[in-house]
Amino acid sequence: MRGRTGAVIVGLGVACVSLLSTGSAGAHGYTDAPTSRQQFCANGTVRDCGEIQWEPQSVEGPKGFPGGGPADGTLCAGGNGRFAELDDPRGGQWPATDLTAGRSTTFRWRLTARHATTDFSYYLTNDHYDPTRPLTRADLDPQPFLTVPYDGRTPDATVTHQGTVPAGRTGRQLILAVWTIADTGNAFYACSDVRLSSS
């Protein structure tokens, strides 16, 4: 009897651990326009990416950015140490998407698991940004250049937004996209390296 009771307790413990480990896995997504660092890793364009090459949709971290959220220097990985390769600036040599500042641009998320959503926000680096150093809040404009509210609605599997990258910014920059989940304490983060030209 004692052995059977022990087996039941062990079984319940395993079930609880499984539930806890998957509790935050209800929503996943990443940006592929402009192409994000995790997408470049997943499609093999960039090598030596570690675990993110198999799960580009999993860059999940605490929400509340910029007042809260991941620590400076860990923004591209959402504060998730498993994906620290995304925070490595690689000497400023990440592949970059060519965009024209001041013109309408398409931003697209691929959601492998959908979830009630607060909003999607997009931040652009400022004139102090150094692409050879890990991204910090001081490198970004304090306000997003585009915010799309969802008010708790669940988005489609493919989410497309139109927005205008601020004029007057040129050269190598970075866009930080943040998908804030409404009913958990987390958000998803994606960094897209871009090369801006003037319109």
UniProtKB/TrEMBL annotation:
PROSITE patterns for this protein: PROKAR_LIPOPROTEIN
Name of protein: Lytic polysaccharide monooxygenase
- Pfam families from the xrefs? LPMO_10
Signal peptide positions (record): 1-27
| One example GO MF annotation | monooxygenase activity
Bilayer-crossing regions: none
Which keywords has UniProt assigned to this entry? Answer: Monooxygenase, Oxidoreductase, Signal
Q: Domain Chitin-binding type-4: where? A: 28-194
For whether the record's keyword set contains Oxidoreductase, the answer is yes
Instruction: Show the segment(s) annotated as Disordered.
Output: 56-94
Q: Which InterPro entries match?
A: Cellulose/chitin-bd_N, GlcNAc_Chitin_IntDeg, Ig_E-set
Gly residues bias locations: 64-81
